[in-house]
Amino acid sequence: MAQCRAREYLLKSTTTINNKNTIHNTMTTIDQYKEFLTQQIPEMLTHLKADTEPKWGMMTAQHMLEHLAKVTKSSIKSYGAPPAEPTEGQLKFKAFVNDGIPFRKNDTKKGKLEDLFYSTIDEAKTAVVEAVNRFYNAFEQTPDLQPYNPIMGALSFKELQTFHDKHFRHHFEQFGLLKTADL
């Protein structure tokens, strides 16, 4: 059921073609991002099980959730002052966030996964929901908040929300919770 709603939601999104002629879906308003992240994500999480296999990559379902919670929480922190000029990496990250192209599907099985922080997948699901709520609360309490991260750089609320939408969609597709709309 959540997959059907998410699919309908994607189909309501605007289909665009970027300068590389890649077709993709983009959200049309900030409210739609928020509705997806705060309302649809928790509903879709009810369908994720600890033994759900990824379509690509080496993360388990719980690793993916812990990754999303950690990235979402860290996105509203400031890690020092931004440099006078953004680094090349930060400029590339900002361009990636704003270009509308989805994340690549990294199918590597190499490396070592981090140890799990939470005892159960249900705790990790709760952490994801709490992280998203913390993200929105931070900007409601401080509308001009400009977090800084040495990797992402200084991103606006709109850019961070765009990033989280893109990031969650990537991983929810990875675990079969969200299907790419047929275009």
The number of distinct β-strands equals 4
Large-scale geometry = globular
The stretches of 5 or more residues where confidence is low (pLDDT under 50) are 1-27
**What's the pLDDT, averaged over the residues?**
83
Multimeric status of the protein: single chain
Q: How much strand?
A: 5-15%
Largest sheet: spatial strand order: 1-2
Amount of helix: 40-55%
SSE pattern, N- to C-terminal: HEEHHHHEEH
Q: Number of helical segments? A: 6
Major β-sheet profile: 2 strands, antiparallel
Broad structural category? mainly alpha
- Span between termini: 21 Å
Rg from C-alpha positions?
A: 16 Å
Structure notes:
The protein has a domain at 2-76 and 122-141 and 157-174. The strands form two sheets. The protein has a two-stranded antiparallel ribbon with strand order 1-2. It has a two-stranded antiparallel ribbon with strand order 3-4. It starts with a helix and ends in a 9-residue tail after the last helix. The chain is mainly alpha-helical and 183 residues long. The protein has helices spanning 2-12, 30-45, 61-74, 88-99, 121-141, 157-174; strands at 14-17, 23-26, 148-149, 153-154. The relative contact order is 0.23. It contains six helices and four strands, in the order H-E-E-H-H-H-H-E-E-H. Helix 1 packs antiparallel against helix 2.
Key terms:
183 residues; mainly alpha; two-stranded antiparallel sheet; 6 helices
